[in-house]
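Retro notes (design track)

What went well: tokenization of the new backbones is finally stable.
What didn't: we kept losing track of which sequence belonged to which structure.
Fix going forward: every design gets posted as structure first, then sequence, in one message. First example under the new rule, 335 residues:
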């Protein structure tokens, strides 16, 4: 199968690309990070440097490909709207059009469940549940990107989408590393009561889901599927588990969800006044992620795609911590 992966220099795209290569697939890795592309080439994987917001670069790269996995996105919690729009909306529009122009047999698109959540708890969210007003540039532009995917489907593109929740594992550059950076300072407070439940998804389980999408029945095309580990965990208990493993003290100080929300909003306002400002130390979105209960219903993916998470959260955390300690031997705690 001649396939192409966008965002192949990212966390998910890189894991997928390497899995496909190990399976003997003819895979092309498309991305923007030269160093990461060189690493893929060193592993014997064909790599192409291209910007998905530039249609000509995308169209040329897709020539001869039968299957495309669109993993590229700008997922930052903070930044200028236009940067999100170009990467997530224009980029997805270009990918969908390039697939149609090159007669790609199927497109598998990686969306996000961030579109489901506002500043309150939601449990067992299904794909067709009512959507709130997006709370971030990322969520808003990924929702607009789904509209581009729907247009492609209406024009004859065989496309299937997944919405994977909170990816973690070896190679993670976002969720656990950000937490560890705060934990290491000893200044991470418990946001809320510390009893909230969240869904996480081990990276290789998401890769499994993508492979299922590549070969799923035709009646699954045009649909979107929730993907997670299907085993919600108490996020602050998990934080303590990580602290124990790495020798860091447990977070003790508590800030109520309401107070943290107000502080996050104040930071957002102040930082929005600064052109090209860095990410604020606290945002309302980060408060929502760490203080609210947020879980998905994954029954559609299980029943229609045959998705079953093979690696548990506990095993995934163990694998991540082993990898992290090997990569960061100097970042252990002192206990």
């Amino acid at each position: 199968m001649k396939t192409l992966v966008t965002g192949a220099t990212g966390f998910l795209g890189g894991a997928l690309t390497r899995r496909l290569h190990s399976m003997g697939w003819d895979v092309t890795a498309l991305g923007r990070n030269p160093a990461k592309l060189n690493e893929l080439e060193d592993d014997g994987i064909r790599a192409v440097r291209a910007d998905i917001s530039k249609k000509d670069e995308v169209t040329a790269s897709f020539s001869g490909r039968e299957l495309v996995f669109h993993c590229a996105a700008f997922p930052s919690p903070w930044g200028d709207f236009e940067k999100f729009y170009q990467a997530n909306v224009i980029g997805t529009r270009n990918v969908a059009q390039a697939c149609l122009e090159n007669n790609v047999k199927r497109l598998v698109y990686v969306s996000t469940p961030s579109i489901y959540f506002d500043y309150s708890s939601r449990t067992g969210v299904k794909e067709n549940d009512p959507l709130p007003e997006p709370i971030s540039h990322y969520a808003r532009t990924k929702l607009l990107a789904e509209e581009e995917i729907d247009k492609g489907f209406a024009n004859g593109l065989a496309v299937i989408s997944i919405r994977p929740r909170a990816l973690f594992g070896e190679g993670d550059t976002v969720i656990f590393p950000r937490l560890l950076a705060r934990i290491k300072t000893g200044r991470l407070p418990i946001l809320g009561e510390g009893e909230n439940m969240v869904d996480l998804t081990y990276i290789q389980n998401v890769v499994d889901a993508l492979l299922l999408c590549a070969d799923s029945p035709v009646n699954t095309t045009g649909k979107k599927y929730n993907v997670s580990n299907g085993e919600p965990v108490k996020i602050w208990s998990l934080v303590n588990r990580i602290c124990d493993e790495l020798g860091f003290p447990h977070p003790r100080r508590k800030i109520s969800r309401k107070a943290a929300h107000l502080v996050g909003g104040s930071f957002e306002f102040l930082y929005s006044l600064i052109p090209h400002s860095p990410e604020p130390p606290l945002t309302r979105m980060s408060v929502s992620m760490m203080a609210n209960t947020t879980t998905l219903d994954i029954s559609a993916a299980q029943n229609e795609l045959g998705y079953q998470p093979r690696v548990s959260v506990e095993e995934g955390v163990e694998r991540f911590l082993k990898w992290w300690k090997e990569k960061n031997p100097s970042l252990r705690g002192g206990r």
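Added context from the reviewer: The mean pLDDT is 94.
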